[in-house]
Amino acid sequence: MTRPLTNWAGNIRYCAHAFEQPTSITELQGLVATSGHARVLGSGHSFNRIADTAGTLVSLDRMPRELEIDSPRMRVRVSANWLLGDLCERLHRRGLALHNLPSLPHISVAGACATATHGSGTSHASLAGAVQALALVTADGTRMELAAGDEDFDGAVVSLGALGVMTYLDLAVRPAYDIEQYVYEELPWTDLIASAGEILSSAYSVSIFTNWTDCAQIWVKRRTDDELPDLAWLNAVKADGPRHPVAGMCAANCTDQLGRPGPWHERLPHFRAGTEPATGNELQTEYFVPADLTTKALHQLKELRPLLAPVLQTSEIRTVAADTAWLSPTHGRNSTAIHFTWRPEEEAVRAVLPHVEDVLAPLAARPHWAKIFMASPRKIRTLYDHWWDFSRLRHTYDPRGKFHNPFTTALFTASDDDR
Ligand SMILES: Cc1cc2nc3c(=O)[nH]c(=O)nc-3n(C[C@H](O)[C@H](O)[C@H](O)COP(=O)(O)OP(=O)(O)OC[C@H]3O[C@@H](n4cnc5c(N)ncnc54)[C@H](O)[C@@H]3O)c2cc1C
User: Fold this and answer.
1) The domain defined by 67-175 carries CATH number 3.30.465.10
2) How far is the CA of 47 from the centre of ligand 1 (A)?
3) Residue 415's pLDDT is what?
4) Ligand 1 interacting residues, C-beta cut-off 6 A
5) Per-residue pLDDT reduced to its tens digit, 110-141
6) Pocket test for ligand 1, best of 29, 46, 208 (most atoms within 8 A of CB)
7) How far is the CA of 108 from the centre of ligand 1 (A)?
8) Average pLDDT of the chain?
9) Fold agreement between 67-175 and 178-374
10) Residue 196 — φ and ψ, nearest 5°?
11) Alpha-carbon torsion 84, 344, 285, 279, what sign?
12) Across 61-177, where does the E strand assignment appear?
């Protein structure tokens, strides 16, 4: 093994007995076909054991990174192992853009799509929503391709790594655009509650940061060809310098603010490529609630502030448009994503999570697949209409459970009364 086998946060030590880095598709097919258990690792930014295996952990880091542009259809075919930041730079040079990006560009395209990674924007689905086709190496080493409209396609996009190894994805693109980013602060909590929907839909991409005290911060990312949002009616103050989402932290690693226009991929993430994202020392959790229940969720979570405060660094509230991927937490419903950046104290975080989940359970909150959650598999299964369709897909593509790991086995092992 050559790569240090922990995740980015350092809370997970992968237990694989082998770490392989094939350099070609043929080598990858042979490796998968002959492995007992296998799992593919992207850039290792997940906070739970979703990417883990006791068998062979496969990294595509040494495979070629390819980019084919289909201009007439406004699509690109990209190797699964591109890091978002590198890919976006290349796309931008060709005058193209993705519709949205998460807070950091450091992660792999396949890892992001496999877990429904998202940014913010009432009209923007997660990255998985841009996928038009994909190729998989399945358990017996066979290559298969699926495209939008194929029967299994919606099941294969957000796959949690459980169907096989994605080798390429076709993504919808659009002409490149510029964004300006403004931070507002001191938003009174009462205004946030009264106007959460209006604030979140006031620009191309909006994030609200709060530690559930009496005020919050708003990050507004406006396309330069859109109207300037008028937020003067809010009792918030435009920041007079760059800000970090966690109060008091230096903003040097954050993307440009203060309304300086710049390319989409240098403004939509909160953190710059090539620097340490976020606080660099944290755990994360996130839940997706139906957009029309946002205010209710915020009200109830605020009541938990005394419990949250000792372990919380900040919370982020974003919007994500509905998509059609079976296991996407935003499947079939426009959603508000409520995120928690925790101090790196997993035991303390796990003590708080049941309280958060109790409050959000009546709102049918779905947890982010790549972050820490406690909800039982039985509860989670009830939240997805296509749960058993996906389970069937797993059996079809991977009849012997090569890609099973404890994370997915727990989720998909049903008792009769689950069905
Ligand atoms: C600082 C920080 C900020 C974050 N911000 C956001 C955010 O703004 N929005 C958000 O939604 N999430 C966010 N995340 C979570 C992150 O997007 C997910 O953890 C994402 O899965 C990371 O991608 P990865 O390449 O590191 O995947 P990994 O953690 O390596 O893997 C995740 C899953 O993807 C599967 N996978 C990876 N590659 C392939 C492949 N080629 N074929 C099939 N399956 C594959 C793995 O098997 C595993 O199941 C953040 C994480 C961190 C650390």
Assistant:
1) yes
2) 9
3) 56
4) 8, 39-46, 50-51, 60, 80, 102-104, 107-108, 110-112, 114-115, 117-118, 160-161, 165-166, 277-278, 370
5) 999 999 999 999 999 999 999 999 999 999 99
6) 46
7) 7
8) 95
9) no
10) -55, -45
11) negative
12) 67-70, 75-79, 96-97, 131-137, 143-147, 165-172, 174-175
Task: Measure 26 CA to ligand 1 centroid, in angstroms.
Answer: 25
Q: First and final CA of the chain: distance in angstroms?
A: 41
Distance 238 CA to ligand 1 centre (A): 33
pLDDT for position 248? 87
Are 405 and 37 in contact by the 8 Å Cβ rule? The answer is yes
Domain edges within the chain: 67-175, 178-374, 378-418
Give distance in angstroms: CA of 11 to centre of ligand 1.
Answer: 15
- Both tokens of 218, joined, read 């708003």
* CATH topology for the 178-374 domain: Alpha-Beta Plaits (3.30.70)
Say if pTM beats, i.e. exceeds, 0.90. yes
Minimum-distance ligand 1 atom for the alpha carbon of 167: 41
CB within 8 Å of 317: residues ≥ 6 apart: 196, 200, 207, 208, 209, 210, 294, 298, 336, 337, 338, 339
The ligand 1 atom at the shortest distance from the C-alpha of residue 103 is 8
In this structure, which residue's CA is closest to atom 23 in ligand 1? Answer: 111
Residue 418 pLDDT more than 90? Answer: no
- 260/243 Cα distance (integer angstroms): 14
For ligand 1, atom 22, the nearest C-alpha belongs to: 45
Q: What separation in Å is there between the alpha carbon of 189 and the centre of ligand 1?
A: 32
Contact 394, 412 (CB under 8 A): yes
Report pLDDT digits (tens) over 139-171.
Answer: 999 999 999 999 999 999 999 999 999 999 999
Which SS3 state, helix, strand or coil, does residue 411 take?
A: helix
Question: Is 222 within 8 Å of 180 (Cβ atoms)?
Answer: yes
